[in-house]
Amino acid sequence: MPTGDAVAEPGNIAGSYAVSGWNPGSDTTGPPQYQGIAELTAWGDAWKYRGFMDGTAYVGVGVFDPLAKVLSLSFRSEDGSESGVTTLRMVGDRFSGHWVFAGVGNGILGAETWTRKP
After folding, report:
1. With 90 as the cut, is the pLDDT of residue 74 above it?
2. pLDDT tens digits for 8-27?
3. In a domain, 1, yes or no
4. What is the CATH number of the domain that holds 78?
5. Would you state the pLDDT for residue 5?
6. If 0-12 CB within 10 Å is exposed, 13-18 middle and 19+ buried, where does residue 52 land?
């Protein structure tokens, strides 16, 4: 269980982010295949996630390790038809990393970059 020292201050990552994403198995050197919005809200020692990607609304919960600058999220679509996990590393005002759906897609990773909105 994390100690208080391992938890980010609530203001560190809370806010809205513009999302650029690539579908599982896609070439991430090409242009993004979808755009979206992600919002992070402090929830105790954890983070609540709300997002809208490629026409679908998502909700989830996650943890942020401020020493490693890594955010790990469990997410699902609001209608319950999709679920998965995301792991993103923070560099400056951006998060970048990978996501995967549970139960579909043969475990092939998608990718996303989140840029903090002003």
Report:
1. yes
2. 344 489 999 999 999 999 99
3. no
4. 2.40.128.120
5. 41
6. middle
